[in-house]
Amino acid sequence: MISRIHSKRRRGMALLAVIWLVAILGIACMATLRVVSFDTKVASAKIHGFEAKQLAEMGVAVASNPAVKPSDPLLHHTDEEVGGSYDVKIASEGGRFNINAILLRDDKPLLRKMFSDWGLEMEEAQQVTDALGDWIDSDDEVAMNGAERDWYEREGRINQPFNHPFYSLDEMRLVRGMDRVEAVKPDWRNWFTIWSAGALDVNEASAELIAAAAEVPVETADQVVEKVRGSDGVRYTDDDVPFQNVNEALSLLGVDTNGRPDIAQRFAANDTTVRIESVGHAEGATRKISLILRNRTGRPAILERTEEVIP
């Protein structure tokens, strides 16, 4: 009798052990499946990311062709076989203010007015403008409202300012007071570049930027933009009428070039530097390639190239 009871207990314990073993094996299998599934997704994401990058590269190659205009339908392509696409934008860098050119020609009134129009108090606008000038000059002499090494060291920032022209727009954010500019104008980067030939291109700039440079109302600057676009009101079409002479545009703006040579030097026509932004899509993966290209219609030179993973 006792032997039978022990036998039943042993069988029960063995059954319990088997159940536990099956449960552990089940958990292990589930974990393995999850790892395999994760690895598969990672591999798939890498493949799709590579495909998206290749499509973005195709877009860059198409846009680099000087015969392709910014309005060309070739800049938007869908490949149904691979389930991917690319979209490309071509824009002139001359349509933005070259911050280095402004500071090197000491055109601080333009920056002061721009910053004050954005919402800074005049004292703040003067401070930021002078600090920008101190950042790129080669000496340690502090401008009236500027900032040199002593100020940055008090802020715990050594080896600043860099005392050379800006290498990137991100570097501008390091300058004293630029945090205030960013607070009142979060999209300030859209107004500036470091890659254009120097002056603002009257054929490429928006009415808002032309108005700021010419010190005229936006409505007046719109006349220049409308003339360039031609009768259909669309840029980069056959009826466009771009200015070949800056003085013609300034005359339309009502600017006296003899009386205001400082305004005249802010403008140019037909800048040859362009920005190409190509975005490739493939099965949920997106990659972006940005290229700054000078002299696209002649002997092109790549000034900057960046790649981004777009979430």
Describe the protein in words.
- Helix content is 46%, strand content 16%.
- It contains 11 helices and 9 strands.
- The chain has helices at 2-63, 99-104, 108-118, 122-136, 149-154, 169-172, 178-184, 207-214, 218-229, 246-253, 261-264; strands at residues 76-79, 84-92, 97-98, 192-193, 200-201, 267-268, 273-282, 285-294, 301-310.
- The chain has 311 residues and is an alpha/beta fold.
- The N and C termini lie far apart (72 Å).
- The chain folds into 3 domains: 2-93 and 274-310; 97-192, EpsJ-like (Ribonucleotide Reductase Protein R1, domain 1), CATH 1.10.40; 199-270, no CATH class.
- It has a 5-stranded antiparallel sheet with strand order 1-2-7-8-9.
- α3 crosses α4 (122-136) and α8 crosses α9 (218-229).
Task: Name some characteristics of this structure.
single chain, Ribonucleotide Reductase Protein R1, domain 1, five-stranded antiparallel beta sheet, two-stranded parallel sheet, 11 helices
